[in-house]
Amino acid sequence: MGEACECGFLRRIVEGTLAPVVILDEQLRYLYVNPAWSRVSGVPAPAFLGRTPGEVLPDVHGPDDVLLQVMEDGQPREVTVTGTTRVPSRLGRRLWRAVFHRLEAQGRVVGLCGIGVEVSNLRRYLDDLEDAHQRLALLDTAATRIGTTLDIEATCTELADFLAPSLADLAAVGIVEEWFNGTPPPAPGMLRLRKMALSAPQEMKGKLRGLGGPGEYLDLPRGSVTRRCMDSGRPWLGNLASDELFQKVTVDPERVRVFRAAGVHSLLLVPLPTTVGIVILGRAGASAPFSEDDVLTAQGLAGRAAVAIDSARAYTYEHTMALELQRALLSEPGSPHAGVELATRYLPSGRSALVGGDWYDSIALPGGRTLLVMGDVMGHGFQAAVAMSQYRSLLRTVAASGMPVDEILGEADRRVAHIGLDRVATCLLVLMDPQAGTCTAASAGHLPPVVVGPGGTPEVLWLPAGPPIGTELGDYESITVRMEPGAALLLYTDGLVEERGTDIDVSVRAFTKLRLSPDGPLEDMLNTLLARLTNGVREDDVALLAARQLPH
Known about the structure:
The protein starts with a helix and ends with a strand. It is elongated and about 130 Å long. A hairpin with a 5-residue loop joins strand 18 and strand 19. It contains 16 helices and 22 strands. By secondary structure, the chain is α+β, with helices and mostly antiparallel strands.
């Protein structure tokens, strides 16, 4: 009675478990399978009995030699069983880990008992985890190669060059056009896309020439696939797409022929978030169609690239606005007296910084005197350019009072606090007095002027350096020197002489090593200075002013 109860209890455990349990005889034929293995395999239990595993499920494979070893030495062993059963599975090929034990009765070997557990999901999880790691590694690499500058064209080119060949055979980047300078605006309901970059192997790029190059634009109707993709923010995938489907993407049948001539068979469109633009990826030739992982990776790369492109576009807009404002203001310096020759030059910085707040001015005063002004507002960008215009107006107003140059700086320093300017500025004032044959200079933290005598040798006019305007620490001193007939004055900002890692005073002294022609036009003198003291991309703006008293 007790043994029967125990056997019944064990049967309920075996038949109730979710783990497949099988019993094989000495010839490895089924003697028993539990309901779990029957459900997993899709084969009724009676169909197993008296048959070998290979006869019942020919697509499921296990190491029979290992089972025979267990039968021979009695040592339990773990085996791997793989294959496909009669039950459809999204996992495709399935995987089980099983342990087999030898069965004995009355001292005689009667067969094997095996119990297994499916690890297909674990393998799929590990594969997914590996794919995720690869995606992260690709995204990390992209972060160091995309958006290295604030130039929008360079950023788009970096994105296209990274995507092809790392994710596709060809990659194109288009950006929504918001300004239509020089071109008619798009028709109502159309969205203009500016072609920014195309990357592909050289041979393929030649075949794609019919699509047009960077700088050209394409107007997208609302019903186009590309437009819907951008409006919805969702990617569009066309694997092994037909010509009809390709035309829904390209709009123009001629572009379909160009793609086909290049061997393109699959397209993936990924929007750049916040309606910045779109990325078009293509697979060609023997390349496999895009997978779900490819789509996820492309979306991640597009999301990161969109931030860099949007920043570059915002920088370009602000840089352009600030530069236009600054050029407009500097294009109208005050007129000196007729007896003073004047030349000016302004060069914006390279890509490493926004346009700054450099300015120059000349103000005609009573008695034939001319006040020369050179200044530099702290910071860069549109706000610095606006502050520069306020400083310029303020100094013109104060200079009209007839104060000495040191007092002009002091009064400007006091007034800045009252008008709410939050940016300080360095400033150099030089008062030319032809009747007295002198010039009087004062500095608010600005670099000293340079005097180029008749012999052509520059000489730095070192001044007491007062605090910048806007600090409310105004305490300025002026010095007066005689000017030889024909001598020229040079005023400049630090962008002309500043070098990374070099003391600014050392850079200023470099002036004294130059030989400048004192007799030629002042424009030629400025050209010589720029050629000798600036090279390559400048990190800061350069403003220059040269003045010379004309002979009576």
